[in-house]
Amino acid sequence: MDKLQPEDLILKLLKEKTVVQLDVRNRTEETFRIIKQTLADLAHTLAKRATELDKRIKIEYKERNEFEVMFTIAEDVLIFYMQSNVFTFDRAHPVWQTSYLKKNEANAFCGSIGVYNFLSDSFKYARETDLGYLIARIFINQELHYFVEGKRQLGFLYNNFSTAVLDKAGIADIINSAILYTLDFSLFVPPFDNVKEVSVSVMEEEATKMQMQTGKRLGFRFGADNDQIK
User: Fold this and answer.
1) Mutual orientation of helices 168-183 and 19-53 as an angle, nearest 10°?
2) What is the rounded CA–CA span in Å between residue 114 and residue 32?
3) 225 forms bridges with which residues in the sheet?
4) d(C-alpha 131, C-alpha 149), whole Å
5) Can you give the pLDDT at residue 12?
6) d(CA 7, CA 12)
7) pLDDT reading at 155 higher than 60
8) Where are the domains of the chain?
9) Beta 59-65 vs 68-73: how paired, if at all?
């Protein structure tokens, strides 16, 4: 058998890897478009119904840029962020134990969409040092197979990578689960010793922008509710 020339090796890798990654990127972008439309529709529906409960409840959808959208619901913000790159998993990851990847390792290439939870006041008052938390990561491959790493139901309801194919109904389920988790994830006061000292400059900023650092679990590990992201 003739030895492959460098040009042939390059083309072989382009076929086996780069083409797959381009397909994954397309699938991820397609998924993100559906996520954006689903969030926009949900914001419109919920805003009408929430007004009947209390006109002070704010529900809003906003596209921040090509890769990031914001869903505000009451005191919380969910940010959905699509990574522009395609990833694979280290060999210690459980997905490699599935027959699905053993049959075709190219299916391990995935796009990633992260879901982050912030306080709405962090954006309202431009508190740039406030903390947000990753609550879920959605992984999608070239065949639209997917799984979710995340908190509570987000981590165990959507983890059948071998057979689960992402569609509009599945996307809606993930979004609803993320919102329900967020609304149930309460703001904790930081430990007294963590905030007993404050500088004059911080208090001056506080008077104008309320810049004291805040987060739902400030001073605590996010895993304080015993649900670590896998």
Assistant:
1) 50
2) 11
3) none
4) 20
5) 84
6) 9
7) yes
8) 6-187
9) antiparallel
Nearest CA-CA partner of 46 in 187, 215, 172: 172
- Residue 148 to residues 50, 111, 124, 153, 204, Cα–Cα distance (Å): 29, 12, 30, 10, 43
Contact 135, 223 (CB under 8 A): no
Give the C-alpha distances (Å, rounded to integers) separating 48 from 53, 98, 179, 184. Answer: 9, 45, 17, 22
Give 199-229 pLDDT, tens digit per residue. 666 666 666 554 455 555 543 333 434 554 4
Largest CA distance in the chain: 76
φ, ψ dihedrals at 229, nearest 5°? -65, 135
On the 0-12 / 13-18 / 19+ scale of CB atoms within 10 A, 40 is middle
**Main-chain dihedrals φ then ψ at residue 103, nearest 5 degrees:** -75, -35
**Burial of 191 per CB tally in 10 Å (0-12, 13-18, 19+):** exposed
Positive or negative, the Cα torsion across 161, 165, 171, 174?
negative
| Pick from 3-7, 107-111, 152-156, 169-173: least confident | 152-156
Structure tokens at 130: 């406030």
Tokens encoding 46: 């919920």
Grouping H, G, I as helix, E, B as strand and the rest as coil, residue 93 is coil
pTM > 0.85? no
Rounded-to-integer distance, Cα 195 and Cα 203, Å: 12
Residue with tokens 């008052």: 125
